[in-house]
Specification:
419 residues, alpha+beta, Outer membrane efflux proteins (OEP), two-stranded parallel sheet, 9 helices
Length: 419
């Protein structure tokens, strides 16, 4: 039985050693980045952002098509259309959209460029939110790791003292077993925390499209956020700006379709031969194929059936109204989300202030006094354990409160488009 306990203890030590080794290896092979560096790397490598950038380029090129007037028609006519001689006629005809239509098309191209640019900003804002949140969770886990190590040190000392007291007959088996159990519980939490850290590093690696693990260079700290009047109105929110820009795009598309109800202008030029005798000065004169006659044409291209274009204009108008309704709904939703995020941040700040102003100092005092009292024999192991748990719980809750506050600040920054 004794050999089994020794073997069990050795296995536990080996598992802990392996856990620390894995954490050390992952930290050694990972690249340590600050939050700003992680964000910049993600913005450079993210494929959704690259896709949005291609969309901007696409609409920049598409804008050049707004002044498209269609193809020039060139018609050659040859035959006996005047006399028995073989004449030829060359006619050039160009259809030009009604004045204002081209201008509307160019304006539509400009609005689409603005829309794609706002979509790019929205994509960047989403990526920044993901990176900030993942980074913040990682630094919290590493801070919690440091706290667990300090607990491990406390419970190791407690287990060593309990074992010594048991051997000298100053305590019973229950105290020694309780101390060892608490120590193993902490060591198990350390292993779990090491695994959490590794998964967070892998998540950052994925977000940054990195070839190696990404580790946090900075430590856990309290984020600062001051909102000005403009930020409180969410005018800089990229998603809101994009939805509002969609309304402008569909408004312009509707305007273009209405313009296309107007007739197109047609201008042309012809040059031809009229082989034969012509009486132009009171006398017949022969005109050969070397003599050419020219002129201009002007007309209107009017559709015989208006219904298809009328339907296109109505459909565009319906899309315009649909986009307006969507934008209004999104505006109300995003403002509601912003109000909720602010209340959440204020709630978390209140909790954090409590820990900063009194709870943390009390926790440190409890640890110091409890250890002295236990070592001096003033309190038993039960009171000592209760004191340890109380103090450590306060410190753990503080780290959790700080993490929740920082995440709520990140959410508010996301909503105001601060990245």
């Amino acid at each position: 039985m004794k050999d089994f306990k020794i073997l069990k203890s050795e296995i536990q030590i080996l598992i802990i050693a392996i856990s620390f080794l894995m954490l050390a290896v992952s930290s050694g092979l990972s690249q340590k980045l600050s939050e700003a560096e992680a964000i910049n790397t993600a913005l450079q490598n993210n494929q959704l952002i690259k896709s949005a950038e291609y969309q901007v380029d696409h609409f920049n090129q598409l804008k050049k098509t707004g002044s498209d007037m269609g193809k020039l028609s060139v018609v050659l006519m040859k035959g006996q259309y005047n006399t028995i001689e073989q004449d030829n006629n060359i006619t050039l005809t160009q259809t030009i959209p009604f004045p204002g239509t081209i201008g509307a098309q160019v304006k539509l191209g400009e609005e689409r460029i603005v829309g794609s640019t706002k979509n790019l900003l929205a994509a960047k804002n989403n990526v920044v939110l993901e990176v900030k949140s993942a980074y913040e969770i990682l630094v919290h886990q590493k801070a919690f790791h440091a706290l667990l190590l300090s607990q491990d040190s406390l419970y190791t000392d407690f287990a060593r003292a309990s074992s010594l007291r048991y051997k000298t007959g100053e305590s019973n088996l229950l105290e020694m077993t309780t101390a060892e159990t608490q120590l193993q519980e902490i060591k198990n939490m350390v292993r779990q925390n090491a695994a959490d850290i590794f998964m967070s590093q892998k998540k950052l690696q994925t977000l940054l499209h990195s070839d190696s693990l990404v580790d946090a260079l900075t430590t856990l700290r309290k984020r600062q956020l001051e909102l000005d009047a403009e930020e409180s109105t969410l005018v800089s929110n990229p998603q809101l700006q994009y939805s509002q820009q969609q309304v402008k795009i569909f408004e312009q598309e509707s305007r273009v379709e209405r313009r296309r109800l107007m007739p197109d202008l047609m201008v042309g030029y012809f040059n031809q031969t009229l082989i034969g005798y012509q009486n132009t000065t009171g006398q017949d004169k022969f005109y050969s194929k070397g003599n050419r006659f020219q002129g201009f044409t002007f007309g209107l291209a009017i559709p015989l059936w208006f219904a298809p274009q009328v339907a296109r204009a109505k459909a565009a108008s319906l899309l315009e109204e649909s986009s307006r309704q969507s934008a209004d709904y999104f505006r109300m939703t995003i403002h509601s989300e912003f109000d909720q995020a602010q209340r959440e941040m204020d709630k978390n700040k209140t909790s954090l202030v409590y820990y900063e102003n009194s709870a943390l100092a009390n926790a440190n005092l409890i640890l110091t006094q409890a250890r002295k009292a236990y070592e001096g024999g003033e309190i038993g192991y039960v009171e000592y354990l209760q004191s340890l748990r109380s103090a450590i719980s306060i410190k753990s809750n503080y780290l959790q409160a700080l993490n929740q506050y920082n995440l709520s600040v990140i959410k508010v920054e996301y909503l105001i488009g601060k990245f």
